[in-house]
């Protein structure tokens, strides 16, 4: 190992599937003095955080807090608390993260019945209905609201309705949707939901906001066995995050990361959730105009596209890795590779949170135009940037 | 909820059981621009981090990295990867954290045979030996090297020797010892070890450094069943943290927290591990002189005291909570309450990492002298501060 020294990361534009660009306000918050996890000043911040998360999730759920670990741990928190060995779960899969749900189910000693849809398509509510009819003993339905691996959005409200008709609880993956596109936990009657901080909230990775309905909380209370994870056991965690002035030590919360999330949620509140959703939609339209002018095609049909995660097919004969490393090295621009079945076949261009802005759209379209034209896969003409600018101008005028 | 605004934490002195004071260098590192978890620049930092952690642990173990969550998750990572349902484990308990180990064992479907020692005493190797003789089918021995709830240090080297004589693997809790007092993973033949960042490393909480020996890695490879936690499954995590340029996505690493840990480990390397251990020992002696002059008695016999965690008995008739809140509100000084069986009976005064310095020793002794004398439990005379200063002067001269 060469002599290590202080790490000075380069200044990138993060337009992959997350982490997204973190604003200076949030970075500044991270660097505030560390205080104790039981300090009354910190506990006051935790109370505010809960209110801010309830706003972001559009819920009044009492059981709303950030798990002290990344989104994958939030996913696991939902499954290990709601499942017991022998349970049966319907898992709808239309990308990588449905597969991860299956892993979680099986590691709880439960059975996963898979409902498959093509990658890039939304989850089909009719297929879910059929699976529930065939499996009347299923207790739970799990699906991904916004598939980060494809950029497809599923109709969470309808899927939850179907699940509830068959008396199943629901677990919803909202890692990529929270803060970026419409999500209404109470109105849609979602029972358990988890997200991440490094997507449309634009806080650093490391925390996973979760929320549980009354009905889910009741199911947890009535468990016959202990939760298999001590760290993620909600009956213990809530001694710390639950209401009331008396906070019991469970584990040491990631203090400074929580400062960052608090600031990021505050920024979202200041902008307003609906305004944030509109901004993501506008930026997506501008990026789309640019990418389509470059001849790049979207993986997901228009009706189901997530504005914050744009998966496009890599043109024939173009070297995936070379393009991405040129963008990173020559433009300090990170876009995402394909994941799972789509590895090598698509690029995933994120427009998430703080990174979802006009400057990034123009910069990315121009960089792709330059790099692809050098490889003979586009004609550098400025037309793509103009197309994006036109959309931006029209939305500004609107 | 009142209108939330940016959170401005007070500037405390953190002299509890952790988190400890975080230096400005580490805080500055946290605030550097977020980059991607697969960015080659970040991967280079990860390689350095591994070397720095190997130095801190005094090990060449390949399997050495920070779990992306607090120490409790590091503990769980050790147990879920090394245990399978039906296994038998000897757990030595002499404080709160041995009890948490038992919870972990049982939630893996394994059996915990408890070896109890009094709180404040070290783990007795003879009792462990007896338990191993009575339970020849035990596969694993787990114990806490440095009990954060009492400040007692156990003889890890001997305990591991005993365990190995009976062909058991070992899991060692080094949350409070790493960086603060002698710990030699390779020399002591420890098989699996976990720690935290917010104690003697003085990085913010949220990460858990772990290390696994070849023997432990082999045991994990030979498992018959999948690890019950997807998030903590080492066979998957090592696709990301393992050697080699090709890092596979598992979960999104807590980027900025890792910047902080990297800087904290660098500071430790610059000081030198042995120097850090000596500093902790010196500061402890000075604090001890001050506290004893105030009439405060240590919970742990001298031979087993951890320099970084000083548990003293609360004088008869003194209101625990009132003293701690006065110190916090009037002095911005955090000391720790008792935990578990010692709640309300002891204070835990930390001298950990960056917080283990002469200024803090003097400040704490003086503050306690003032607060206790107002309550009639000491006579404010300056003698306690003088006693501490005398030790500091002698060690400076040495």
Summary tags:
homodimer, 398 residues, alpha/beta, Aspartate Aminotransferase, domain 1, 13 helices, 13 strands, globular
Average pLDDT level of chain A = 95
CATH topology term of the largest domain in chain A: Aspartate Aminotransferase, domain 2
Question: How would a crystallographer describe the biggest sheet of chain A?
Answer: 7 strands, mixed
The count of DSSP E runs of length 2 or more, i.e. the number of strands of chain A, is 13
Write down the CATH class of the largest domain in chain A. Alpha Beta
Distance between the ends of chain A: 56 Å
- The CATH architecture assignment of the largest domain in chain A turns out to be 3-Layer(aba) Sandwich
Percentage of residues in helical conformation of chain A: 40-55%
Q: How many individual helices of chain A?
A: 13
Share of β-strand residues of chain A: 5-15%
SS class of chain A: alpha/beta
* Oligomeric state of the chains present here: homodimer
Radius of gyration of chain A: 21 Å
By CATH's scheme, which homologous superfamily of the largest domain in chain A applies? Type I PLP-dependent aspartate aminotransferase-like (Major domain)
| Sheet with the most strands: spatial strand order of chain A | 2-10-9-8-5-3-4
Order of helices and strands of chain A: EHHEHEHEHEEEHEEEHHHHEHEEHH
